[in-house]
Amino acid sequence: FAGSRAEDAPAASASATATPTPSASATAGNTGTVPSKAIADGATWTGTLTLNKDVRLGIELDGKAAPQAASVEIDLIRKQFYEGTTCHRLADSADFRFLQCGSANGDGTGDAGFQYGPLENVPSDGRYAEGTLAIARGASPYSQSTQFFIVYGDTTLDGSTGGYTVVGKVTSGLDDLEREITSKGIASAGSD
């Protein structure tokens, strides 16, 4: 990851059906030292996510619609947490297409020592459009940490457990992602 605040870029906005941004008191379930949501400063942040050393995705993080999640991602990027990590999960069915990354151990385990919530900017219909960047989590809405997923084909996920925070989007490079990575699968992991 590399990037910076997009000074002149218009901020992306949540859809009319997205969940509202939680109040400060809603963070009582956080564990560890969660980066301040003020880092994202309500701004749009742009950058590049590089996979396999040569697949470059243009990305945009939405600090207005998902201030806590965007702040966490910005903080992790600044600390170079993602350097050398791998993507460990590939879902490749016709209506369920995403690549999950950000695990410290490369196998879906390991994080930065904190978990946070609640969920932000969740599509109420469970539809995650191609190009969505969302935060992975466990069963609890306060289990978000370092893992994220890149939706490379329109995907519908079960929203009965709360859904997933949409933190931003891919602005370029999805064709390269599919041609160079998702069409080939990933080593040492299965696909859904």
TrEMBL record:
It holds the Pfam family Pro_isomerase. Residues 1-37 are annotated as: Disordered. Residues 56-179 form the PPIase cyclophilin-type domain. InterPro entries: Cyclophilin-like_dom_sf, Cyclophilin-type_PPIase_dom, E_coli_cyclophilin_A-like. It is an enzyme of class 5 (isomerase). Its EC number is 5.2.1.8. Keywords: Isomerase, Rotamase. Signal peptide: none annotated. It comes from the Bacteria. GO terms for molecular function: peptidyl-prolyl cis-trans isomerase activity. PANTHER family: PEPTIDYL-PROLYL CIS-TRANS ISOMERASE CYP38, CHLOROPLASTIC. This is peptidylprolyl isomerase. It comes from Curtobacterium oceanosedimentum.
